[in-house]
Amino acid sequence: MRKLTAGLFMSLDGVVESPNLWQFDSFDEELGVEMSAMMTRVDTVLLGRVGYEQWASYWPNADKDDPFGAFINPVPKFVASRTLTGDLAWQNSTLIPGDVNEFATELKNTAGGEISVVGGISLVRHLLFAGLLDSLTVMMHPVIAGEGRHLFEPTDPVTRLTLQTSLMTSKGNALLTYGMRTS
Predict the structure, then answer these.
(1) How many other C-beta atoms lie within 10 A of the C-beta of residue 106?
(2) Which residues in the chain come in under a pLDDT of 70?
(3) In order of start, what are the domains of the chain with their CATH numbers?
(4) For 81, phi and psi rounded to 5 degrees?
């Protein structure tokens, strides 16, 4: 069975939206190594509608030498949306047909590498609380963003997680990977 994972940049005050506005000065070599390792494991991505729309307007036109662009453009991308219709313009992008939980479950049972949720705050939350996410990595940056969306909401249920791995980088980033607690 394939693993379904997610990773989000997060400020100390819990903001995960628009990390390009606040994480740039603490991105270091160790974080780059971890991002590269993720890109070698992942061969399929899931995106939410908002993430898809933002990324589809940027990444296809990004510098050809950008390592993330070289990863994200050719990889198969499945988009969860209730409002998008028809064919998607960004190469290798397909709308998820029907129920996202059923689709993710079926996808996990196919052959291939890791599946990663990128560019989808709501989708990460949904798959985590549906019990479908095998691991969630938060890359905590030593910055207070002040404003922006948080991953978790005050109405979310108490949910116990287990720390799977941790890494502290030279610029103070804490990479924390959690899985659902099974007992």
Answers:
(1) 11
(2) 183
(3) 4-180 (3.40.430.10)
(4) -155, 140
